Amino acid sequence: MKILLSFILFFTFSIVHSQQLKNTEWVKILATRKDGSKINDRIRRDLKVENLYFKDNTVLISQNHQYSVEENYSIENGILSIGHFIKYHIDTAGNLVLKLSEINNQLPDDELNTYGFIKSKYLFEYLKENNQLKIENDSLINCTSQFTPTAKYDLTQTLKRPFQYDGDSVSIKGYFTINQKHKITDIHIEHSANISAKQLTAFNNAIKKTAHLWIIPYTLKPYSFKMKFSCSFKSKYQYIAGHGGEFYTSHIRFNNDGKEDQTSLR
């Protein structure tokens, strides 16, 4: 059965098999609200969620293509609880798709969010059927917010290390290529500001050292992946409760193509 047809059936039937969530990874490809208005993603309020990886008792949450959050979760009577406050009804949990509906007693029913996830091993085939993959020369995938490697944890500390002892605010933008053997090549810097040659070399080395930290998405044959990145690090002095100190703000984006949550992938 084709993946596209399976998603048509997904919205027709609602069969709950919650035990199938353990040790599985899911990628969000659909976010809707019952009244048709703009989605308000409340799974995490700071950044939109991309992937969920369910372990035995905790769930890893990917934001900006990095598994930066880990929360306890439980499933009881078809209700998925993440952390202490967030609850979802499991509408569908099968081998292919997962559909969650928000539970929030403070909101009317038509303002509640629903989310559609596809199991990660089927994402390549689904996007290919829907002409959503950008492939060059049948060997290189140009990564997008929909399809990209995901880091095993937050890479902020690793990537800001070349700059953290300098008082200037810095920014850097470019891309690199990683293959399915976790080898990073072709690091290309398209823009940089307030970065010395020494710092640039250190940053390139930091990128290379992340090679083993990326989870490469499943594909039907070996591909390389071109990943875009944009980083900015700003330092500032703050005086709080009688104590002053240097604080850093960090912004790192991977394959940010400017798209909001996908409301459909027709």
Task: Give a structural overview.
The protein has helices at 3-10, 123-129, 156-160, 197-209, and strands at residues 24-33, 49-54, 58-63, 66-76, 79-82, 86-93, 97-102, 113-119, 135-136, 140-142, 150-151, 170-179, 184-193, 214-215, 224-240, 243-254. It has 266 residues and is mainly β. The chain has an eight-stranded antiparallel barrel with strand order 1-2-3-4-5-6-7-8. The two termini are 17 Å apart.
Give a brief description.
The chain is mostly beta strands. It contains 4 helices and 16 strands.
Can you tag this structure with a few keywords?
single chain, 4 helices
By DSSP, the count of extended strands is: 16
CA-CA gap between termini:
17 Å
Uncertain stretches? 8-18, 258-266
Structural class: mainly beta
Note the beta-strand portion.
Answer: 35-45%
Task: Determine the number of helices (DSSP H or I, runs of at least 4 residues).
Answer: 4
- What's the pLDDT, averaged over the residues? 81
- Helix and strand run: HEEEEEEEEHEEEHEEHEEE
Q: What's the overall geometry?
A: globular
Record the strand order, biggest sheet: 1-2-3-4-5-6-7-8
Q: Helix proportion of residues, in percent?
A: 10-25%
Q: Main sheet, how many strands, which sense, barrel?
A: 8 strands, antiparallel, barrel
Q: How would you summarize the topology of this molecule?
A:
Layout: H1 3-10, E1 24-33, E2 49-54, E3 58-63, E4 66-76, E5 79-82, E6 86-93, E7 97-102, E8 113-119, H2 123-129, E9 135-136, E10 140-142, E11 150-151, H3 156-160, E12 170-179, E13 184-193, H4 197-209, E14 214-215, E15 224-240, E16 243-254
Parallel strand pairs: 10-15
Antiparallel strand pairs: 1-2, 1-8, 2-3, 3-4, 4-5, 5-6, 6-7, 7-8, 9-10, 11-14, 12-13, 12-15, 15-16
